[in-house]
Amino acid sequence: MPGLPSPNCGERREGARPDLIVIHYTAMATVEEARARLCDPAAEVSAHWLIAPDGAAEQLVDEAHRAWHAGAGSWGAVRDVNSRSIGIELANPGDRPFPEPQMTALERLLAAVMAHWSIPPERVIGHSDMAPGRKGDPGPRFDWRRLALQGLSVWPDPSVQRAAGPGGAAGFMDSARAFGYPDLPAATVLSAFRLRFRPWAAGPETAEDRAAIADLARRFPVDGGAGRA
């Protein structure tokens, strides 16, 4: 809004308050190109924050307003993710590691945003989490475990090795939905889950996948375990 460069924003619908943070990568070659697109009215996309590889963090949209970063998707009962979230873009083409200054800046920003809006770590998610199959950012090179160790996101208990719950796609999907993933085909959700939590894994669903998602669902049930809208 006034003083901030992106016009691509509006009021949060139905008086919504941010209770999610969605992390993206820009998929563009430079931070300058990304900024230009996020501030171009014709592009109709934006984010609240843009972090450069050197760690410079720039606010593009007032956090009180609805930025246009998430698109179609959901997390738990939230269907209009833009109205309920803060969007953070990391300037990265998607094919390389995230530099240390950028990660450090992200950690500082996350801590501040989470404190300001009282957002718990389990509601810091990736674009790929809320839009499995449609989006893949921030991708397999992003260090989610690093954030979790600082209380800025979540990670499965490393002591969990085997699934205690039912096997097969039904058991995996029960846990995935309880954690927050959309109700989509099991293979699509498994790919999104692995992209974030087990990027080294390949092939059919395993007991380790089921154990990890069951642990997350047990400790961090989406919407407090309430029924989904």
Produce the secondary structure layout.
Blueprint: E1 9-10, E2 20-25, H1 31-38, E3 49-51, E4 57-59, E5 66-67, E6 85-90, H2 100-117, E7 124-126, H3 127-130, H4 144-149, H5 168-179, H6 186-197, H7 207-219
Parallel strand pairs: 2-6, 2-7, 3-6
Antiparallel strand pairs: 1-5, 3-4
Helix pairs in contact: 5-6, 5-7
Walkthrough of the structure:
This protein is α/β, with parallel strands linked by helices. It contains seven helices and seven strands; from the N terminus they run ββαββββαβααααα. Strand 3 and strand 4 form a beta hairpin. The model has no long low-confidence stretch (mean pLDDT 94).
In short:
This protein is 32% helix and 11% strand. With 229 residues, the chain is of the alpha/beta class.
